[in-house]
Amino acid sequence: EIVLTQSPGTLSLSPGERATLSCRASQSISSSYLAWYQRKPGQAPRLLIYGASIRATGTPDRISGSGSGTDFTLTISRLEPEDFAVYYCQQYGSSPPWTFGQGTKVEVK
Amino acid sequence: QVQLQESGPGLVKPSETLSLTCSVSGASVNNDNYYWSWIRQPPGKGLEWIAYISSSGSINYNPSLKSRVTTSVDTSKKQFSLNLKSVTAADTAVYYCARLRVGWYYFDYWGQGTLVTVSS
User: Fold this and answer.
1) Confidence (pLDDT) at B57
2) N or C: which end of chain B has fewer CB within 10 A?
3) CA atoms within 13 A on the CB side of B117
């Protein structure tokens, strides 16, 4: 099983600041199969990025994804109030086919 | 606008079967570009993929749950379902249904999730 480790667990930042979230895989994965999601309390998780760097429909330009191999990053260039949430990375690969990171909570400092 | 909505009992007794249904609106279930999936998150733990099913009947289960899980789809009702038998407290979780994009293998639409508690 490919394990995804997200860091940090919690990121305390102010609106307008830059957020950098890390997702590290226990073995190399295809960039095509790395996705990022945002989840807010009481809401359905929302797809932000797929293929490591492709924005999903509706994802604002301030949110971007990058990386390859075992190291992937989600960057929010300037935090808006609606960006404070929990973020998960997800990969598709070996058995079980889909695994998720534990999540990074971006909270207001 | 694609929407998914989970429904089912919020409380299940140990050793019984957990049954959930996901209703899909705003999209056709008969689309080979998508599979219909279940994912769960136990309290304080990570997200765990459970299963997927296609409208043509392709099914895949997480090996860790395979012996206890079944899933089905009713294209006429635009619904798909999950059954998890012989549940224990470890199956207490928020259960999500989601649409899986074939080829890229990401989940592009999710339900809000439903908490299922296993307790006597």
Assistant:
1) 85
2) N
3) 4
On whether the CB atoms of residues B106 and A47 are closer than 8 A, the answer is yes
Cβ–Cβ below 8 Å for A47 and B105: no
d(C-alpha A51, C-alpha A72), whole Å: 11
pLDDT for B93 beyond 80: yes
Measured between CB atoms, which of B49, B63, B104 is closest to A50? B104
Contact B110 A100 (CB under 8 A): no
Q: Residues B80-99, buried b or exposed e (16+ Cβ, 10 A)?
A: bbbebeebeeebbbbbbbbb
Q: Determine, for residues A43 and B96 on separate chains, whether the beta-carbon distance falls below 8 Å.
A: no
Closest CA to B37 of A105, A7, A68, A98: A98
Structure tokens at B11: 């409380």
Average the pLDDT over A93-103 and give the result.
Answer: 85
